[in-house]
Amino acid sequence: MMRLEVQSLDLRISEKKICDDLTLNVKPGEVWSVLGRNGVGKTTLLHTLAGLRDPLKGQIKLDGVALNSLATKARGQKVSILFQQTQAPISTCAYDFVMSARHPWISRWAGPTRDDQDIVVESLSQMGLEALMHRDVGSLSGGERRRVELAATVAQNAQTILLDEPVNHLDLHYQINLLQDALTKWRAEGRAVVMVMHDLNLAIRFSDHLLCLCGDGSTLQGETSAVATTENLSTLLRYPLRELTLGDRSFFIPA
Amino acid sequence: MRDPNIQFSPIAIGQAISAVCGFLSGSFFLLIVTGGSSSDSLASEIDHGVLSQFEVPAERVISLAPHLTEIMFHIGAGESLVGVMASSDFPSAALLLPRVGSHRLLDLEKIISLKPDLVLGWKEGNHEADLSMIRRLGFNVFESNPGTLEEIAALIRQLGFLMGKTEIAESQARDFERKIAELRRRYAKKEPVRVFYQVWDHPIYTLNGRHVVSQLIEDCGGSNVFSELPTISVVVSVEAVLNADPDVIVGSLTKTEDSSPVSMWSQWPAMTAVASQNLISIDADHIARMGPRIVLAMTELCEKMDLARARLP
Amino acid sequence: MKSSHRYQRLTIAILLVFSIAAVGLSLLVGSVSIVWNDLISFFRSGTVSMTTMVVFELRLPRAVSAFVVGSSLAVAGVMMQVLLRNPLADPYVLGVSGGSAAFALIVMLLGLPFSAVPIAATLGAGFSIVLLILLARASGDWGSSRLLLTGIVLASGWGALIGFFLSLGEANQIQGMLFWLMGDLRPEWPGFIRILVLLAVLIVGLIVARDLDLLLEGDLRARSLGLNTSALRLIILLAASLLTAASVTLAGPVGFIGLVVPHMMRLIIGSRHRLLIPVSALAGGTLLVIAEMIARTVIAPQQLPVGVITSFIGVPVFLYLLRRRGLSIPS
Known about the structure:
heterotrimer, A: alpha/beta, six-stranded mixed beta sheet, 12 strands, globular, B: alpha/beta, 38% helix, disordered N terminus
């Protein structure tokens, strides 16, 4: 069980304020989406939460322990991040790529254990990739590559999971089902998930909490049902939206 | 004293016409200067000098090679020198003369400022671009490239003609030839000795049969073990020398060095040359310059080779 | 998986055999013919002869040096290519060999005894490494393009100095300088320190091999998985620089081994550094021993600088690699 706490975070890129005095509390089992217009700093925020960037001010804590006080390997065991862009070199095979996500758990001297191998195979199966295990990542389609990266995230087995546009390039089937299955599982396991989703409606559908970056440093956060109103979202995205209700689901479309 | 024949070559006439029509200043006549008692054979062997509207004797001369400087003094024309190359250090009077550059770079402005009426060039040691630049600037250039002992004698005579010192030059040339003939008579027919001539040790450089050093070795009753190699100067491996197993190893020693490059062979006692203590050094200034002192080199070489010959098993 | 354990062991075994065969062949080949009886009597009663002197004092030290230099350069090449994430990186790109060469040429220019050249070369290499680190330190991350640019500028600077020294040299000095600049192996032992450096870097390389694989997958990802990329990069930089310095101070800047051998080996056994590093070491050593042998015998009695042979071999091999597969490092 891992609680991700953000206290008084000040984040800036050059002169642009991403967030000003942000306080965030992600509890185990919660799924958060970060919303905002392009370029407002969602990816930067995610990287900061992963410990890859230092904020101007403020603290990030995992279960009460400051993130920047952790050793890098320990941090890798607790926080995992799926990046927006594909990072794999073309000549690595899928198996090796997922195995490298076990790096925080593998002892330098002992090397990968039987357990590590099993975890890798299972993660790949979860993503429907057993047949492609030994193929070079460079020879896979965009969607298959993304699923390999998701498998790697699964294999890393961190309690806090950060996803930057996880379902880019994926077919609709995967976009819905894969994400659904993964998130359900993670919720049940008590992990904390923070995502950046390109698709507003998917974000609303899959998250129980929303964090909106308004662009001037101010933020809006809370349960999805509370935050996802036409007014809030139209202001956030600076475009008038309309809400459509179908059954028990709401969709927001451009007005 | 015989007047040397002066001939116009067809090439020269063509060049003269194009020069007149072209944008270069001055008109050129290509002269082939022959001289001395064996005029015909010499004429065919010697590189032609280029002279232009030139009156013998020259009064202000620049020498672009140390051996040319030495010959000038040798024929009594030293006072006509107004500029020399940095490496001209013999005779000592040459040290007082203004420097016009080193073999790497000629100071063309210095040359111009000295207002020479004759520039002595050395084809092998000067850059062709420099020599043609000097010509284009309107100066007279006499270019030579002595490659054999005979050509050195011819060069002495040629310079004698150019400097109006034909008598002295003739007698010096004859003296040169006489000494060489005498050394040949004494040594050339002796028991042949196999010689390795070493120019440098890092890497190991030697010279082939076309170089004058091979001629010296032959005249002293020896043969150059690497005379058959394709280019004049060649890098050879240690093993190649070990394999050739020469009777004598000869190197040159400059004034500033205290150990000759040939001393590297003393760690191979199995070699014939080393076992017989036949590691010889010749004064570098004598053997490396195509001037009158090469006779000294030849004398030293023949005498030392003869001693070496005696030491062979 | 590209290489199973058996395949790995087989590759290493084959390369070991090749290495030993190459060294052995190099001992037997040369201008002087081996007299077998002399060798036999040496082993029996220790009698020294021309044959034994040629084999044990000329060919053996040179073959061992060639192997050590070839190994060092190949491993340095692997590390440079990881460090700079660039398939064109070779051990000399950051200027270490330039500094070494410049100092060596000063010694030759001043007419100092030739024994001073390796000392000067070492000083030059060390100076260049320190200068590089001081200048590139501000960039923080050692693998950034700033490091590469700094190194290239340094290398150019050294190149200018080298040109300057060449223009000042006398005719016979220049011949020596050019020979050294093309890479020349003399018949001397590599020395205890160089062997130690090679072994140390091999061990360190094997220890961080998995980290190196991860580093290639992207900086951000590596960091997110717990790798201290900054520290690792500095280690690689130092290791590669030391290896390069050790090689250049012994044999001058021998080209192409550091560039081509890693790519050749990747083609055969893949990019995993745990195998790539030792395999490249063996292959690089073998290749240089063979090249040295060719340099010494192809136009005997003339001797070519070994760098000429490595270039002649390296260029067509590199072109072949380019055509066949593209170079397998992400740039």
